Amino acid sequence: MDSENDPLPPAGSDGFGREAEASDELAGGPDQWEAFEERLARVASGVPTPDPADDSLGAPATVLLTGESGAGKSRAARRFHDLSGRRDGPFVSVHLSGLASTLLEGELFGHEAGAFTGAVGAREGRFVRASGGTLVLEAIETLDLALQVKLLRVLQERVVEPLGSEDFVEVDVQVIATTGRSLARAVEEGQFREDLYYRLAVVPLQVPPLRTRTHGPGFEGLCQGVMAHVAARAGVAPRALSPEALAALAAHPWPGNFRELENAIERVLVLGSPGETVRAEEVAFLGEGLAGRAEEIALEALASGVGLEELEAAVLEAALEQEKGNVSAAARCVGLSRRAFSYRRKKLDGA
């Protein structure tokens, strides 16, 4: 598994997602995610609350986390578990794209000895191992249609049937599914079952990319939380960030999301002076990488015969699509004001 499964920084030091409407075209912002974290904390503390929505956090309601690669979906899943009423139960994760479908069924639901070639002994599946806690199904969009039917049955009936067995095993699991693409679109394209989609999206959450988190007041706490986490993992003392270094981090677009931030912080810790405040020069390598990539893209465009206006139009449209039609967010992605972004699009459309 990748770094998304590493232990989390302390609760409240960062924000890895946001609450959303009950659809796959998710919306929302940092304030909504903070409100959702407050609900999680209330349930975890056991304090009585009049909010009936809090009850779902202790019950086996399914959660669907959508977000870009590296955005922190596994972190959000872990936080959901740690702050829920199931935090004392097991936390089990499986990446569905990492196993062939012939092996995945046995991995999820278990199997008896001799159920298939190579099954020399009985084995509990991930659902049984996660009973009483949380099971994370990563990359749910890669599950083939045949297994989607069986997963739907498990979610509906709360029982699994191990391969080679005629007996059913009851399971008490909160399922969190993660995906890097729109499941609603996958349903439209016939690649994902609609009934399973709605069964998974009881609590839908959008995990926003890091670039949308850099302008809020919580960005410094987020960076310091990642600093503490990476330092603990590396066995070194964390370092404070100077205002200039923090500004340089906030100005970076973070195409690699939280993975890139973790790598940058780790580099600063390994190469810098222990105990000293991180200076802006120590994170200048982030800009150097972008400059090289921009030159590479420019050379590719020239070699392909792509003109300047065509390239600019493609960048603007890509930003708009990436931000799901939100013009203000798309403008921020390319470093323009909303007015300048709209003016350039209009000008290029008339060219």
Automatic annotation (TrEMBL):
Domain Sigma-54 factor interaction intervals: 26-270
GO biological process: regulation of DNA-templated transcription
Species: Saltatorellus ferox
UniProt protein name: Transcriptional regulatory protein ZraR
One MF term in the entry's GO annotations: sequence-specific DNA binding
Spans annotated as Disordered: 1-33, 41-60
Keywords on record: ATP-binding, Nucleotide-binding, Transcription, Transcription regulation
Record flagged with keyword Cell membrane: no
Keyword ATP-binding: yes
InterPro entries hit by this protein: AAA_lid_NorR, Homeodomain-like_sf, HTH_Fis, P-loop_NTPase, Sigma_54_int
